[in-house]
Amino acid sequence: MHDLIRELAVHVMGEFGFMLEANTSSVSSAWPRHFTYLQCQYETSDRFGCIADPEISPALRTFLPVRSSSKELLYYLSGEMLQSLVPSFCHLRVLSLCGYNITSIPLSIGSLKHLRFLDCSSTLIEGLPDTLCSLYNLQTLLLSDCHQLKSLPNKIGNLVGMYHLNIHGAHRLEEMPYGIGKLSRLRMLTDFVVGKNRGPSIGELGGVKYLKGKLRISGLENVVSEADAAAAKLIEKKHLDELVLEQGQGSSVAIGQTENFQELRPHINLTKLSIIGYNGERFPGWVGHADLKYLEVLHLRQGRCCVELPTLGQLPRLKHLVVEGFDQLQILGPNFFREQHLSSIRCFNSLESLKFIGLPHWTEWSIVEADASLFPCLQELYVRDCPELIGGFPLELPSLRILDMSNCPGFCGSLPRSPLLCELSLENCGMADLSSLTDLTCLTSLSLHGGRPTDEQIAIIKAATPHLTSLDSLALKWSDPFTPSLEVTMGWHIPSSLRSLSITGIHDIEQLLMNSRILQYLHIYNSASPSMQFASSHPQMLNHLTIFECNNLREVQIIPPRDKSVLTYLCDLSIESCSQMSFFPGEGFLAENLTTLFVHDCGTLMLLGNRLNHCFPSLRFLSVENCPQLGSFGEYDFPHHLETLRIWRCENLKRLPCISECNSLQLLDIANCPKLEPLHFHSVDLPHKLQKLRIAECETLLSLPGNMHTLKCLELLHISDCPGLESFQREVLHIRNCNKLIFSYVVWQLYRLIFLKELVIEGFEGEGPFPATGSMPSALTILSMVAFPNLRSINCLELKHLACLRELEIRRCHSLQQFSEDLPHSLCRLTILECPLLAAKCRGPESPDVGNISQIPCLVLDPLSRDTPASPLSGSISSLLRHFLGLHLTKEEGEACRNSSNSNQEQQSVTSEREREAKRVRIR
């Protein structure tokens, strides 16, 4: 399908279009007008050489990168490359820089007089140059998710031909520029920020009459008067579909708050409305007025001072209502449903979904019992984080299908009568009356979570479950450990329709499972039984079994032993935190189709595995973790089809299992097993198909298995914190804190590892240049050097032989001062952290010549400390870095430079994960 779409796109573009692909280096079209390509994480100048021709670049009309993977991935384009490309596109109509980790737009953007479409979405730009405002043909400007953007150009009002301005997600904007109201042709304006004591007023919106789609207005605490609000003329914007009115949470209750909001009344065509952070005690009258006859979605959030909700029951088409974060709200009275003089009107006639979230003082609904006209179409009801709610729900909700309540510990009322209810979830809801459970014959999912239940509640559930003939999933989990009385649970039967069961604290699991023929998922928590037995009368369709925190459990059996029909379909088995289980599996336990087995946190487990291949012949994945008493895996063979074996934190383990016949084993992961016998480990016969081997924190080991040199499929070898290792006999190799092994790296003959792509070495104490000549494998793409305290120079001549090297990381090399010569041209990312001498040179005036770093798309350096004094040249250095290299300083570095050069430019700290990385990344 991908190839068909590509061929169609190429056909549509015809002779005037050109699509750059990974294996393309020249322009195939004689007259290219439209240039598109798949983005690479690191864009190099060589990639765009095909359009740098002075005969081609002026003819381009479209420059359009296409994201090739997740939106979260950062794409790097050097500022130097951008500076050279942009001026050459003199006839460009469409320019997209979406997703690139750039922090500024070249001033030369103003020379693209024909530009109509500019997309800078998801970049780290801090502002736009004023030269942009000379692009009088610009119609679309996209700046969505520009989290660093703080201001728009002051003369944006000159762009009178603008139709679309998208600044959604630019949360650092503090104000709009003057003249925004002159953009009378705007059809899309996603956000408008009302500034505090500066910038234009909200009245600027009055000049933008034809807005469509969604508009978010924030900073409403800065609206100074009713006249100012009225000047926005929201009531005249009949093409708006969605409106968000947002007031800052840090603002105090303002006099005239309700009056200002009264003038923000939208047009009756509105379909979605959100009011966030309203600081008045009562909402203006237009909220909930029947005139909003097309309103379908209403969100009221963070009304921290509001004591009463508006009348909403009269909105004829309202389908979804969310009320969240009203600290002062106590009662939902009759006015919430309808005005008193309209008692005959049906309330919430179209409402399908209703959510009450975070109402700490809400105590009850005030509903007339005889009123059966409430919520006739309500299908979903969610009540969460309302700790003082007692009850008062409507007695009948005839269309309700989902009822979800959580964190309402004071609730003691009855549940509404809902004959169509399919899903019921009650979590930490105190003493909710469950007497109506028997009547919920359509229920397919029942989930009850909370503290210690009473025997009466258990008895009600026990009596009701046999009548729930449509029940598919049942979860009874209690946070407080408890064991109900045997009399209460005796004879408990679950419906035969059940497929998933999670249950806590039940003695007689065997009796409970008698009629559950099609059960597939079983999770057992905190059972007091010392033994668990599965028989042929129990569910034979069971796929997943979890046994958790059953501290009296000593064995899991099948009756009769070795009966293949008992657990025929079991695929996943997890046994965790069962402190009394000393061995597993027991005699006669058999699960022929089991593929995944977890055994974690079993403190007394001493033996795992006598004849595991016989018990679990289909096992593919085995994880054993935190079993400190485990001494061995038995004396017999291991499952032959095993693909992954993980053994972590087994402090008493001395010998690994016999894995020589596990011909499918691809990953072996051993960590924190300090008593492994070195001679035994050296004699382990690793399977020849092994692809990944990880060994960590095994202090006693002296050498790796003897047949390491025969592993032709090995792609990753990770060794860390094994100080006794001295030698080993390929894609990724990680070696950390193994001093004896690292010191002799030259004799490893790494160059013979022709498939090795990533190499990480940590803890090298040598002084000479690294790496030694001829020591590195030629296919290496990633090289990391960590904690080389005595290293003074890097042998770049050896690195130049690595034609595929793309990433070089240097960390904690405090004596490192220089590169011996220029870095390889293939390098796309250079990371230098905690290397003060080398980093200082990379920041200095000679930095462009240090290892030729100006050619690298991504350079990562430590941010300067606040205590670092600014040198007299810091201002000029900052300018040099910005102009020549395209490096972008962090907040700390910017402050140091500004103190010496009296610059007024402002830098912003980075908050999101994407921006936190950018705090150390310099893009050129």
UniProtKB/TrEMBL annotation:
Basic and acidic residues bias: start-end ranges: 912-924
Biased composition (Low complexity): 899-909
Gene3D superfamilies linked to this entry: Ribonuclease Inhibitor (3.80.10.10)
Stretch list, region Disordered: 895-924
Pfam families with a match to the protein in the record: LRR_R13L1-DRL21
Chain ranges of the R13L1/DRL21-like LRR repeat region domain: 202-325
Protein name: R13L1/DRL21-like LRR repeat region domain-containing protein
Protein source organism: Carnegiea gigantea
